[in-house]
């Protein structure tokens, strides 16, 4: 124990210095009666209520020095005051106290102008070390902020920045708006670096490696930025690593600035060190895999710990490849070719026999069903094709044991134990393994009693409702942790930011029972005083205010603040939504919430290039009515204006050009229309000239008005009105000349349509369970001059079923019906064209259904039915999957002609169901699986075509009734699953 | 409360004859040291030294620095939730405090009253001293490492010369017999040094604002 005298370090008395006090001695007034308590100035930042709560002295009280000091401290502790001074006026009846105050100012907006990044605005903001909402002291300038900015700018090549700032004080809410105005000057450039130490490489190759010089080291030097400096050093390190200098050291020693030429000369110390080679004896492994498994490559150093880690990794690698008895050892040898101190690290692998894990058993499980246990296991018995020898290693077994024990413990089995028994030559067959996990569940522990303290009586019921570990419930540490999270979340979201929670667990007198004690410290409750929104330039304020979920007098809630942030980000018009509490350390009850909004760039330009290939192409000839393998490049350019009119709407235009399509699209999107998060409005207009249906080239002008209403997470409605003007280029239409006037009629149509979409898929890009339903109904009344009139319906139902851990069955059924209300046939562009990668893989794109009886080109139909079924499963490793599929259906000439007949009656019969079988591969990517499908359709349509020129066709020449057939073998390549 | 509001009249100007009796002198990371805190501390020191308090500018500044240190310690002790001393411990500390001044408890209270301190204030002072001691004990003592070589060195270089200077004729005690005492001394010295280093570091990281008007 330390003696009291030790505190003298802080209590030590200092020298006596003569002088006279400038202020009155407060103790002189001790015992006097306080007549009045006044505040100056009259306009105070706190309400009279709040001041009343802070000041502990009142008229009529007796003056004491200590109480006065306390009052002063309490007032200051509100955080609203920068300075407080107390005057006393002595009268014969007592004293009058006057508190003279100066308000504090808090940062409400921080803007930094004049710097072309890097550094980015976020980095510059952070460099100021100023927090939104915190007090700004400006009497002494902002030296730390200015210095922080200067350092950051210098690190990015702006060596002589001129930094100025302005402060705008707003007395009403004690806000200060701080704007830094920076003139960064010209960014310094690199000049040839100096390399010291023992680099063992020539200067040119080193400079090339840094990337500090443009054009692979042959161009001028780059402007200097912090990132370039670090990247350059990292590239140097990598260059040594590639040549097995695993112990190389690369260090930036200096960055010397030359003001005359505005250049920076880096000095880099490089010590290449010896070459270290890693050799494997007894087995082979790829170079990339070796680098992943032996961590000396990542850590760039060689020590025993890393070599042992590499040994374990290699052992696990071979074990998980079936060599379950694999043993790895290593030794370090001198490497005469590696320079002074060169080393060879030699890993010796004794693979042993290769096994196959054929059986996995879990015994002793009573409380759970076996599937619950199995789905937590990492080892997998052999199964074709993904795990031909199973997945097994000692490390995985340990992981499984931990997972099982954890499952039991979270359900109250505190004493659960698991043993793993590995049986060689399982079933009497050499090379086969069986693993059995033997579970000893032990007793299940329950909560006998819960004592909760510290909770406000008014909240007891609510808090108890959040607790999982109630008496009678199984006990687990996880459940206690969940209780803690739930309770604290409640408090944090209801104005208690300082709430804390402690749990005490004690064994109860009864066996298998524990007693819990939860102690809550609520802390002070805070409320929202006001919401201060800053930074809006062109955005209408009501767009923001209508999305606030935080409002005055509400409890200060973290979740509401985060929700507001989310809603504002969802508008897509803000680059940054910074939210802070004003005066965060002040003990005032009501806090202002500050939102600084930085609007994003309004214009964005995007380019895209792509290509499609498959059975497309063809041309204006009649030679391949069923398509031929082809390739079509595609390019796209788009310009978007976000936050149009300050309403958060987006106006965009897109130009798409390919050899099959030219399209100009103008789109107007109003998300969260009129403040409703669930409603969006879209106006679109496009002009399109396309030949995606090979039979003709159409020119289409379309205007659409659509409202989307999200009813719930999976369900939404779309309401549309579409005006379409379509004409067909008669010179491109590939049908019987006699039918051209009918099929090529220009169409003006107004369609009123509505869709219902229900999406309960787990992952729209690659679904493994759930379902997806759509139904779309449209009616086109014949009200315009070039009219056609019809009612159409299109519906789809897809579902996804997990058959086992790896196998997914996906199926889809699509149906469409176009009911013609006129006597003339519906013009070609309004008919159904289908077939291809997303509808029926037995056909090339849009090649299903009726065909022209002369030329053989598809002419679309009035109905369609498609059914697809797919078995999806992993194939090799985690990223390559495979599918087996069967598609059937067709586009039919009419609803009445829908038939599931297998056989085609003759070459004029297209109203039958085409079946196709196939297989495909899926490569998992972040944007969805890349897909390659091969299909075979044994009953693909046979039809007659025409051989000759268009002129010959019109004049009656050429060769008619040429037998043709849609190729039974098709392939499709695209991104995303088929459905 | 209504009564209070009624008299919380907002003044347009202070009375002409008014004088400043208290004000904020220093703010330390949200806490404040008031002018009255500084003066009271000066009186405490005067009481401990049986002298007259003196309030010169330099003295005010010097005392303000001590109180800044105390504020930093207080904040750290609160954040770290060191256990507060019990009433019995405080009473015990009051008694020890009195005896360290060569007084009994009642005599100390009576003399403290002359310097403007009530009994409760003296108890608060004792409680604060205990808090401070615990803070040093818990915060710094565990990190102090005293080796046998340190003990031997202290014995040879400090203890023996002092002992011989004080009692030249007497036989010096063996290292073994004074080992525990030396260990305690070294622990105390090193933990005090560590606390000073911590204070210096904390001061650098803490926003400390001086209100010059308080020191004029």
Describe this structure in words.
The complex is a heterodimer of chains A (979) and B (216). Chain A is built from 19 helices and 40 strands. Chain A is α+β, with helices and mostly antiparallel strands and 979 residues long. In chain A, helix 4 crosses helix 5 (143-155). With 216 residues, chain B is mostly helical. Chain B has helices at residues 2-7, 35-49, 57-79, 87-100, 105-114, 119-139, 148-166, 175-205; strands at 19-28, 31-34, 208-210. Mean pLDDT of chain B is 84; it is low at 1-16. A three-stranded antiparallel sheet of chain B has the order 2-1-3. Chains A and B meet through helix 1, strand 1, helix 2, helix 3 and strand 2 of A and helix 1, strand 1, strand 2, helix 2 and helix 3 of B. Strand 2 of chain A pairs antiparallel with strand 1 of chain B, so a sheet runs across the interface.
């Amino acid at each position: 124990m330390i003696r009291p005298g030790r505190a003298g370090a802080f209590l030590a008395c200092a020298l006596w210095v003569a002088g006279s006090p400038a202020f009155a001695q407060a103790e002189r007034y001790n015992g006097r009666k306080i007549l009045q308590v006044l505040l100056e100035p009259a306009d105070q930042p706190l309400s009279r209520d709040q001041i009343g709560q802070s000041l502990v002295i009142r008229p009529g009280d007796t003056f004491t020095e200590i109480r006065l000091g306390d009052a002063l401290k309490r007032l200051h502790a509100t955080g609203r005051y920068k300075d407080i001074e107390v005057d006393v006026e002595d009268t014969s009846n007592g004293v009058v106290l006057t508190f003279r105050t100066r308000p504090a100012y808090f940062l409400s907006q921080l803007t930094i102008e004049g710097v072309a990044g890097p550094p980015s605005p976020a980095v510059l903001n952070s460099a100021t070390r100023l927090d939104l909402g915190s007090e700004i002291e400006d009497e002494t300038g902002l030296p730390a902020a200015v210095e922080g900015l200067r350092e950051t700018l210098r690190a990015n090549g702006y060596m002589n920045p001129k930094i100025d700032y302005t402060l705008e004080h707003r007395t009403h809410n004690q806000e200060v708006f701080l704007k830094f105005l920076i003139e960064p000057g010209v960014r310094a450039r690199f000049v040839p670096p100096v390399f010291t130490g023992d680099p063992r490489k020539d200067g040119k190759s080193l400079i090339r490696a840094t990337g500090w010089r443009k054009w692979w080291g042959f161009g001028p030097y780059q402007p200097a930025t912090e990132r370039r400096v670090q990247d350059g050093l990292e590239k140097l390190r990598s260059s040594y690593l590639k040549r097995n200098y695993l112990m190389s050291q690369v260090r930036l020693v200096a960055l010397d600035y030359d003001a005359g030429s505005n250049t920076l000369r880096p000095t880099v110390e490089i010590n290449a060190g010896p070459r270290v080679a890693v050799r494997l004896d007894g087995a082979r492994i790829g170079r990339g895999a070796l680098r992943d498994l032996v961590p000396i490559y990542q850590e760039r150093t060689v020590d025993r710990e890393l070599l042992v880690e590499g040994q374990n990794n290699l052992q696990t690698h071979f074990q998980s490849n079936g060599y379950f008895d694999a043993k790895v050892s290593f030794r370090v040898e001198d490497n005469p070719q590696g320079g002074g101190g060169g080393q060879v690290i030699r890993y010796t692998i004794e693979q042993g026999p290769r096994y196959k894990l054929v059986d996995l058993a879990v015994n002793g499980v009573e409380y759970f069903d076996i599937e619950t246990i199995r789905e937590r296991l990492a080892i997998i018995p052999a199964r074709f094709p993904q795990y031909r020898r199973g997945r097994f290693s000692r490390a995985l077994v340990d992981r499984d044991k931990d997972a099982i024990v954890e499952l039991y413990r979270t359900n109250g089995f505190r004493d659960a134990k698991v043993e793993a028994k590995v049986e060689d030559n399982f079933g009497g067959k050499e090379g086969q393994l069986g693993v059995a996990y033997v579970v000893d569940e032990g007793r299940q522990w329950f909560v006998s009693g819960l004592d909760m303290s510290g909770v406000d009586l008014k909240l007891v019921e609510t808090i108890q409702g959040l607790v999982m570990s109630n008496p009678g419930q199984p006990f687990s540490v996880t459940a206690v942790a969940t209780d803690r999270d739930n309770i604290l979340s409640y408090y944090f979201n209801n104005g208690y930011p300082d709430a804390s929670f402690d749990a005490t667990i004690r064994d109860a007198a009864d066996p298998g029972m524990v007693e819990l004690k939860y102690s809550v410290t609520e802390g002070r409750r805070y409320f929202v005083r006001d919401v201060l929104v800053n930074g809006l330039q062109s955005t209408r304020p009501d767009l923001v205010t209508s999305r606030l979920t935080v409002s005055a007098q509400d409890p200060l809630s973290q979740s509401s603040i985060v929700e507001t942030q989310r809603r504002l980000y969802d508008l897509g018009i803000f680059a940054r939504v910074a939210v802070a509490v004003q005066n965060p350390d002040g003990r005032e009850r009501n806090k202002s919430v500050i939102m600084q909004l930085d609007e994003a760039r309004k214009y964005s330009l995007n380019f895209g290039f792509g290509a499609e290939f498959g059975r497309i192409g063809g041309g204006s000839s009649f030679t391949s009515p069923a398509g031929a393998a082809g390739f079509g490049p595609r390019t796209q350019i788009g310009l978007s204006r976000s936050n149009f009119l300050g309403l958060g709407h987006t106006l965009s235009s897109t130009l798409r050009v390919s050899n099959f399509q030219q399209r100009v699209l103008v789109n107007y999107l109003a998300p969260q229309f009129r403040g409703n998060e669930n409603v969006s409005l879209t106006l679109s207009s496009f002009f399109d000239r396309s030949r995606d249906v090979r039979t003709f080239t159409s020119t289409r002008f379309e205007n659409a008005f659509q409202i989307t209403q999200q009813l719930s997470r999976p369900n939404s409605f779309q309401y549309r009105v579409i005006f379409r003007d379509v004409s067909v280029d008669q010179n491109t239409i590939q049908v019987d000349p006699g039918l051209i006037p009918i099929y090529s009629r220009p169409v003006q149509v107004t369609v009123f349509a509505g869709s219902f979409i229900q999406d309960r898929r787990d992952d729209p890009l690659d679904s493994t369970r759930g379902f997806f339903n759509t139904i779309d109904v449209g009616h086109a009344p014949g009200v315009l001059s070039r009219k056609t009139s019809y009612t159409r319906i299109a519906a789809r139902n897809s579902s996804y079923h997990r058959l086992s851990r790896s196998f997914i069955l996906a199926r889809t059924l699509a149906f469409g019906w176009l009911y013609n209300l006129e006597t003339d046939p519906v013009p070609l562009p309004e008919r159904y064209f289908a077939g291809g990668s997303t509808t029926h893989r037995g056909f090339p794109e849009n090649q299903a259904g009726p065909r022209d009886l002369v030329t053989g080109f598809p002419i679309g139909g009035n109905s369609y039915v498609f059914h697809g079924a797919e078995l999806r499963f992993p194939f090799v490793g985690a990223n390559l999957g495979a599918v087996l599929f069967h598609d059937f259906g067709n586009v039919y000439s009419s609803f009445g002609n829908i038939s599931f007949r297998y056989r085609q009656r003759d070459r004029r019969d297209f109203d039958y169901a085409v079946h196709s079988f196939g297989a495909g591969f899926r490569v998992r990517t972040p944007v969805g699986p890349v897909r390659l499908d091969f299909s075979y359709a044994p009953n693909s349509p046979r039809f007659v075509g025409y051989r000759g020129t268009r002129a010959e066709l019109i004049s009656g020449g050429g060769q008619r009734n040429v037998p043709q057939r849609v190729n039974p073998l098709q392939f499709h390549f695209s991104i995303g699953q088929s459905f | 409360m209504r009564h209070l509001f009624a008299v919380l009249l907002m003044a347009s100007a202070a009375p002409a004859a008014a004088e400043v009796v208290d004000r904020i002198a220093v703010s330390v990371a949200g806490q404040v040291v008031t002018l009255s805190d500084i003066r009271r501390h000066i009186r405490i020191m005067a009481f401990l030294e049986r002298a007259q308090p003196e309030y010169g500018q330099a003295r005010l500044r010097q005392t303000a620095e001590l109180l800044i240190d105390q504020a930093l310690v207080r904040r750290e002790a609160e954040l770290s939730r060191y256990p507060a001393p019990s009433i019995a411990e405080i009473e015990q500390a009051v008694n020890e405090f009195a005896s360290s001044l060569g007084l009994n408890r009642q005599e100390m209270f009576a003399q403290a009253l002359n310097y403007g301190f009530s009994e409760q204030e003296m108890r608060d002072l004792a409680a604060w001293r205990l808090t401070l001691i615990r803070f040093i004990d818990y915060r710094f003592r565990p990190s102090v490492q005293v080796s046998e070589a340190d003990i031997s060195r202290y014995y040879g270089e400090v203890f023996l010369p002092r002992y011989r200077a004080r009692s030249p004729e007497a036989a010096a005690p063996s290292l073994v017999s004074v080992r525990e005492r030396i260990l305690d001394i070294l622990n105390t010295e090193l933990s005090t040094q560590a606390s000073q280093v911590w204070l210096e570091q904390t001061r650098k990281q803490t926003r400390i604002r001086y209100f010059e008007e308080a020191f004029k």
